[in-house]
Fold this protein.
Amino acid sequence: QLQLVESGGGLVQPGGSLRVSCAVSGFTLDYYAIGWFRQAPGKEREGVSCISSSDGSTYYADSVKGRFTISRDNAKNTVYLQMNSLKPEDTAVYYCAAAFRPRPLSATAVQAMCVHRGFGSWGQGTQVTVSS
């Protein structure tokens, strides 16, 4: 059974850093594109960053570009989102999601998946709060 479990959320001061992790089980990460999404109270879920399965093409939302970095360790079946220079507006529940895409995706395709939430399997989320 395909399962995604997020961890690493918490409370951090503005300007601080946090790394959230997405541990996957029940499938081989190598063949899946992975996305990080977030949802703040009263707002729609938005794509933060997504990464292709094999060649590592990535997409970042404009709001996090230059501050967040997505990475994957297929040997550990884990995907990470390193978040630096955090702002109060980054406060949200962060979700990871997976989609079976065994062939490399272009940067355009990764962006489309992220923007349109083109993922079928989702984790339960981890809360990230940025506050002083």
Summary: The chain has a mean pLDDT of 95. The longest helix spans residues 107-115. The CA atoms of residues 34 and 55 lie 12 Å apart. The chain has one helix and eleven strands.
